[in-house]
Amino acid sequence: MAADSTKTIRDTGDPAPVHREVDGDAPTGGDLEAAIAHQVRMLRRNAGMSVADMAAKVGISKAMLSKIENAQTSCSLSTLARLAAGLDVPVTSLFRGADVEREAIYTEAGKGAVIVGRGTRVGHHYELLGGLRGQHKRLEPVLVTLTDDSEVFPRFQHPGTEMLYMLEGVMVYGHGNAEYTLRPGDCLLLDGEGIHGPHDLVRLPIRFLAVTAYPDNHRDE
């Protein structure tokens, strides 16, 4: 197949992506009342309702809603249920931002764990850039460095999706029957079930970021 295949992303009619940005005053965790206050206020404003409109809709006083939105009172479960119904959201969405702890892994440059893989014997260096626990463990970011030319290259096949982002050098990378010439700044997104791996190291040294997103039911073997 032809090398350097390029595709243009088009509107497929799929639902709009979930917004990731939050307001500057959004709580970062630990304060339940503050989290509920922020969510209720934000959702009410997004719905275009005034405090009076919202209070009337859910059947509480305007003064009570004002106290809730200013984190001056604790809500009963029945009040939370009425607020969620009035805002047309799940009750759990009112707790967003109230998590006590969310894990983050910081990896200093050059200090990632070294992985011994099939390509290690032919001059391939794999550095794991961090790994979260639980459901987030399915994401695996690896910095790959190729310093030695070789006529034998490892091949990979695994569940999930993989993204390669080229940082340095030039290489021809294969996926199934296709080949792609990757240069700094190029990105290749691929189905991990297709056999893939380097075909030709055009200009060394080569460095690229490989991020694999495994399916939810994936287990390490």
TrEMBL record:
<dbReference type="Pfam" id="PF13560">
    <property type="entry name" value="HTH_31"/>
</dbReference>
<dbReference type="InterPro" id="IPR011051">
    <property type="entry name" value="RmlC_Cupin_sf"/>
</dbReference>
<dbReference type="InterPro" id="IPR010982">
    <property type="entry name" value="Lambda_DNA-bd_dom_sf"/>
</dbReference>
<dbReference type="Pfam" id="PF07883">
    <property type="entry name" value="Cupin_2"/>
</dbReference>
<dbReference type="InterPro" id="IPR050807">
    <property type="entry name" value="TransReg_Diox_bact_type"/>
</dbReference>
<feature type="region of interest" description="Disordered">
    <location>
        <begin position="1"/>
        <end position="29"/>
    </location>
</feature>
<dbReference type="InterPro" id="IPR014710">
    <property type="entry name" value="RmlC-like_jellyroll"/>
</dbReference>
<dbReference type="GO" id="GO:0003700">
    <property type="term" value="F:DNA-binding transcription factor activity"/>
</dbReference>
<dbReference type="InterPro" id="IPR001387">
    <property type="entry name" value="Cro/C1-type_HTH"/>
</dbReference>
<dbReference type="GO" id="GO:0003677">
    <property type="term" value="F:DNA binding"/>
</dbReference>
<keyword id="KW-0238">DNA-binding</keyword>
<dbReference type="InterPro" id="IPR013096">
    <property type="entry name" value="Cupin_2"/>
</dbReference>
<protein>
    <submittedName>
        <fullName>XRE family transcriptional regulator</fullName>
    </submittedName>
</protein>
<dbReference type="GO" id="GO:0005829">
    <property type="term" value="C:cytosol"/>
</dbReference>
<feature type="compositionally biased region" description="Basic and acidic residues">
    <location>
        <begin position="7"/>
        <end position="23"/>
    </location>
</feature>
<feature type="domain" description="HTH cro/C1-type">
    <location>
        <begin position="40"/>
        <end position="94"/>
    </location>
</feature>
